[in-house]
Amino acid sequence: MLTFCLHLLVLLPTSSALLEGLYCGTENCYDVLGVTRESSRQEIVKAYRSLARIHHPDMHRTQEKKLEAEEMFKKIATAYEILRDEESRSDYDYMLDNPSAYYSHYYNYYRRRVSPKVDIRLVIIVTITLISVFQYYSGVSRYEEAITYFTTIQKYRNKAMEMAKDEINEKVNKKGKSKLSKSEQKSELEKIIRKVIEEKMDIQGAYAKPSIKNTLWVQLVLLPYTLGCYILWNIKWIWNFNILKKPYGDEEKLYLIRRYMSLGQNQFDAKEESEKQEYLEMELWIKENFLEWKQIQRKNRRSCWLIIPDTNPTEDT
């Protein structure tokens, strides 16, 4: 009797670990394939192929035998799917070793069944594509916003009308039967002004005309070339200015100023040319001059903050 109880205690963890509806149900997946927990993946594949040939429904003639074979074939296929994958096999072994962790077993099992196995390469490609599309159309939106803004400024409107006066006379100021109504004239005039501003206005910075070259996809494709140019540019800089001690040109001076200001290329390009010229005249590419100028700018800002106008003056009574 004692021996029987000891055998029962040994078998209890394994039998109680097998849950209906999970993995191979109340059967052990290793037993279904005739392998052990120490079997390698190659041994599991070999056992599956051998059993699949024997129990494939097409190998049997009578309907009864076909149904029996089909049921067995499903069990073999299920066991193989679980044991051939390292992660699902690890979860299955954990269930055998920890029969009391019911909720964990259900979670691990259904997490793998419900979660689709998506190729990470496809995820990366789709993500990069979506980012690139968003970048381009965001650029289009900002550019259109900038053009709309410039069409509202009178000096740009006047200049555009002066440049396109022949086209305005031809399309807007028509005579006779083809004469446009006032609303049509206004609409046509706005189209012409907008077109001229788009063609002639050189918008820089974040509101510049969008280009496919600035999207993430193109930047990644051109990365080796861009990296090579960057390395070559740095070598030339070190050779010309650190070793040969050549004087800086305006382009190099503006680069140093932009770097001291911690501005991106688009941000710096958006500044007025007169402002950049002022930086050059103050020799801000020299670090000491820039730090002094920066200190003055800070003091000026502080002064502006301290001057608070009295919006509600007390009236003399």
In short:
Pfam families: DnaJ. This protein is mainly α and 317 residues long.
List its traits:
317 residues; mainly alpha; Helix Hairpins; 3 domains; 16 helices; disordered C terminus; DNAJC25-like; transmembrane helix; DnaJ_domain_CS; signal
Rg is: 38 Å
| Terminal Cα span | 112 Å
Structural category is mainly alpha
Q: Overall pLDDT, averaged?
A: 81
Portion in beta strands: under 5%
Classify the helix fraction into a percent range.
over 70%
- What are the secondary-structure elements, in order, as H or E? HHHHHHHHHHHHHHHH
Q: Could you characterize what this model shows?
A:
With 317 residues, the chain is mostly helical. It folds into three domains: 29-114, Helix Hairpins (Orthogonal Bundle), CATH 1.10.287; 120-174 and 182-210, no CATH class; 214-306, no CATH class. It has 16 helices and no strands. Mean pLDDT is 81; it is low at 1-16 and 311-317. InterPro entries: DnaJ_domain, DnaJ_domain_CS, DNAJC25-like, J_dom_sf. Belongs to the DNAJC25 family. Residues 1-17 form the signal peptide. The chain crosses the membrane at residues 216-235. Its main location: membrane.
Write the layout of secondary structure elements.
Blueprint: H1 2-17, H2 29-33, H3 41-55, H4 63-84, H5 86-97, H6 102-114, H7 120-151, H8 154-163, H9 165-171, H10 182-200, H11 216-221, H12 223-243, H13 250-261, H14 265-269, H15 273-281, H16 287-306
Helix pairs in contact: 3-4, 5-6, 7-10, 8-10
